[in-house]
Amino acid sequence: xxxxxxxxxxxxxxxxxAACFCMALAGAYTMDPSDPLRRHEDARxxxxxxxxxxxxxxxxxxxxxxxxxxxxxxxxxxxGADPTGGTTDSTDAIARAISDASRPPSDRSLFVxxxxxxxxxxxxxxxxxxxxxxxxxxxxxxxxxxxxxSLRASDCFPTDRYVIELRAPPLAxxxxxxxxxxxxxSSLMIDANHRAxxxxxxxxxxxxxxxxxxxxxxxxxxxxxxxxxxxxxxSFLGQHITAGGDPFERSFSGTAIRLDGNDNxxxxxxxxxxxxxxxxxxxxxxxxxxxxxxxATGLGGTGIS
Length: 305
Fold this sequence. Notes:
Number of helices: 3
Radius of gyration: 29 Å
Strand content: 35-45%
Oligomer: single chain
Distance between the termini: 94 Å
């Protein structure tokens, strides 16, 4: 005699064993293991689901255990930032994401007084965001990354500031000799809109700026002050977007990279327009693989000073 829906005797036997198994373990899946009616009902429902799956010719699913650990990746769009690069100011939304990411998950620290944020990430999700004031990281933060998108200064951005600032406020209470440690800025395009600077790093330890494109800075593309061991690598900087031989080269201003500190590294960087490519006033800095467009004095600028 056939079985309804084409179910074989072997499948029915498997369902019977599965039902017995569910009844035996039902207590592990209930809110109240002491309630026998609840256990019986849970087992019955699971048996019915398994029977339906077998009848349909698909494998029954097993309970999935999910991790209770919260993610340390913060997407700015989830805080209301507008990734379209339109007229909506995303500064406050990005600031809220940074504020959440900057809450230490434990009492672990890096350098004395610098909180270990466990590699928390501010993820820009490949969008372009209009900002009206600096994107600032709270002091005493460490092991934090901002990456994966573009920031563009608005027409009202303060002309004496930078699009991204690692700089403690003047009245901030110092908890360490340094203000930051191991901050990574990666895969960013920063458009200072001919109003501001690109990135300011002040009194930071072991900062990494990599794989970024910084343009339209009015003052400096990257300014490193005090601290030490900032690494700038595999990046492009230019006050104006050109491909060399620009007839207005002599009128370009600004400095692409300024190092007012010790023990920093600039490597594999292209500076395609600025009055000065790299200005160094500190000691023990390492510069390698730097290409500066048209920076011979006769062409209107200085490559490395």
